[in-house]
Structures are given as C-alpha cells and as structure tokens.
Amino acid sequence: MTPRLSVLVPGEPGDRATRRTVASVRSQGVPEVEVVLGSPGPDGTTALETARRAATGDLVGVLAPGDELEPGALRGVLTMLAHDPGLDVLYTDEQWPAPGAEGIATKPDWAPHYLAGYPYLGRLTLVRAGLLERAGGFRAGFEGAEEWDAHLRATELTTRIAHLPAVLVTRAEPPRTDAAAVAAGTRALEDRVRRSGRPGRVEATAVPMGFRTWWEVAEPPLVSVVMPTAGGRRTVRGAETLLVEQAARSLVERTTYPRWELVLVTSEHTPDDVVPRVRDVVGDRLVEAPIPGAFNFSASVNEGARLAGGTHLLLLNDDTEAIEPRWLDRMVSVAAGDGVGAVGAKLLFEEGTIQHVGIIVDDKRTPIHALGSEADGLGRFGTKELDMDFLAVTGACLLTPADVFAEVGGFTTELPLNFNDVDYCLKVVASGRSVVTTPFARLFHFESSTRGHRLEQWEQDFLDRHWGVRLCLDPHVEYRSLL
User: 205-232 pLDDT, tens per residue?
Assistant: First the structure.
C-alpha cells in the first residue's frame, strides 16, 4: 500500500508565501499527500506541533512558508519508500539562495555523530508518524532548532534511516543561525545528554549552528601511545630533527591528558641513541618494544599493542606534533560515546594545510583523504571542524579501545605499509561500531604534502577481495560535495 504523506507548514492560509508552498506540493500530482497548516495553540503548542496533531499521514515532513518542492520530488520519495517500505526516517538534499554553491546542501548518508553536532538532516525529512509521536513530537521552547530537536529524538529510536541523494527542496531562506536558534540548538543537545543518562557538556563552535559534546570520563583511562619508529630525521621548521624525539616532547609539553604511556616500537635498524633520547624526554612512561625482522608497520603496531598496559591504544606516527593541547582529551571523550570503535584527528602539513580529516573511497574503490592540501578552516557546513562519521581514518593518529583491537584481530600483517589502517577501520565498522574523526584534535604531521604514496596493485586487490562490496557502498562519499 502506498503510504500517505503529511507536509506540515507553519503558516496562515492567506499568506502569499504559504500559498506558494502549498501550490508546489499540489503540483506534484501525488494523491497520497496532504498539506496541514498550523498556528500556535493557546496552550503554548507550537505551530508545527499543532499541525502534526492534525495530520493523518503515515510519514510527516516540514516545509516553511515560501519553501518549494522540486518537480517530481514526492514521486521520488514514494518510489524509495516502495523500495524500502520499512523506513522510519527518509531525508533528501536541499538548497537555498546563496552565492555560488554555498546554498546547495548535498548530504552524506546517515551520520549520527554529524547530526549530534549539526542539524544536517534539514528538509525535506520525513519521519514515520508513530515514531514522531513516540519521540514527543515538536516541543515548545526549541523554536529555531525545533526540527533538529525532533530529528535527534526520533533517530534515537530507530535504525531505519535512509538518504535520498537529490535536491528536492528549495528553501525560501537559509537555515537559521541567529542567537535564538543557537540557544535552542544548545538546549536540544543538552537535553540529548540528559536523555543519555551520562554526564557531558555541550559547547558551541565557530560553525554557525555547529556544536560539540564533551562526554565526561569519570576516571581517565590509561592510553597506551603505540609509536613505531625507525629513528628517522627530517628538516622541520628549518632545523634537522629527530622526529620521534620531537613527537615524545609534544606528548610531554603539549598534551593536557594526564594518563598515558609511550610504547616505543623499534626495529633492527633504529639507531642506538633513539631510545635513550626518548627516555630522557618521557621518563618512566616509556615502554620499550623492540621487534626483529624487516620493517612491517602492522606487525610493529601489533607488538606495541601486545605490550601496552592501557585500556585504550593510540596509534601515533613518530612524525607528529600536537597543536591543540586538549587533543587527546577530546579523542578520549569521543571514544567514550556509545558504539565508537575508532577515533581519528585532524592532521595538518607543516605549512598548515590539511592532510587528513577522514578517509573516503573514490570511484575506483581506492581509499583517499577526504581533503588533500586544502586550507584549514571550518569547511562547508562544518566539515572541517565538527565530528564526522567516516568509513576509515588514518593510522597516523588513531585511538581505539584495546579490547576492540583484540576482538577484530589488530592490524593485518599482510598489509605491511599501505591500507592497514583502512582495513582495521573496516573491521571495526563490520563489528557494528562507528569510526569518527574529531577535528578539534589537531596535530601536525610532518609528511611532505607533495611526496605522495606509492600504492601497489596487490594492496588494492587485497582491499577489493576482502572489502569490495563495502567499498562500493561507502555511505560518506557525499562529503566530496560538501568539502
């Protein structure tokens, strides 16, 4: 049976903008749709809630006066619902007046950590009527973030969420980012923290309507920083530098997180002076983990994990340096979220351009950085600043619970150099956990932005053989349009 759709419009019948929106719905030629106008109720009920209570549809969506559906929009929605009739939440892309492409919001597939920091579902989002009722409908006191508040509560109650990647709505105005909307968004997220039953705090970011939640950890876990090194040297800021010594000094001098140990994994070719120099920096926090044989990054990581004493493992390259002192605090906080299996950071090249905010898959099923040598900043719709769900993050800075590492079998030694981090993250995702980048954690990665990586065909073949289907279904490729 074709579901009936209810489009809620908080407007008056005689208003010109409302008439334009109603006309755009009626012009769809879809009999299975009703438009429900709403006005604030005498009991303080919002206009949207008044309309919702009067709606009779199976799924409910919102348009503001002046918004218009694109031709064929509802046909596309009904086609997708016919393909997957059990969907509880279905959202589409949208646009609004803005210079160039600034007002075209092409969205990733379901990204819960992104939604917890930014109201990206937007319009048109259709929610199963019974689910929205169970979630509490549209609540007074959240005007300016009323839809976001409802989306947060509804998506906590279902996993049947899908994205229709087509621009189906043209808003009359951009989404609100005024002070009242920011305050309402803060209240919505603070209420989300209360619903979780766990302590946490919400802070606004420089991104308009962008937030981050800091989950509090009652007793900070011991983090074992696993750092393979061959004792490489490189010119950094004009001076010849022993990279691992600089990385160790960064842990001591630029890291506010209190509980960590450094598991230094050395190879047969690591110079003899490296370990003493690192010990001089970190003292008794140092755990030595020598490994014989030819260098194999995956084997080095696994050996470091074997000797680690922490409940969390931080895989960290020896050519990194902290920028934000609370970088590890932030990564631990994100890892404390429900179902998180791996956390990545924002890595910058020495000149300040971005090396990493997450990994996506290109059209050839090859993992690539979502941003390459782009200027640092907030990004479109907060993509360079807010927590993001990804298929994988780089092993140059990757935090993961030690029990998750053991459960999925650690790093695959068949991949000694490239794609071992991607393979690990795919195993984490396959276990039902999420992979998140938190750009608040900012570090330099002193890898040349022009060096590139030599990738062998057998490495790509390994990924295709083990993860071909999942690589074809990367849910986050729409970040290409956002970035």
Answer: 999 999 999 999 989 999 999 999 999 9
CATH 3.90.550.60 fits 223-482, yes or no: yes
Q: What is the pTM of this model?
A: 0.94
Residue 371's pLDDT band, with cuts at 50, 70 and 90, is low
Cβ proximity of 441 and 328 under 8 Å: yes
Q: Which option is the CATH number for 5-214: 3.40.718.10, 3.90.550.10, 3.40.190.10, 3.20.20.80?
A: 3.90.550.10
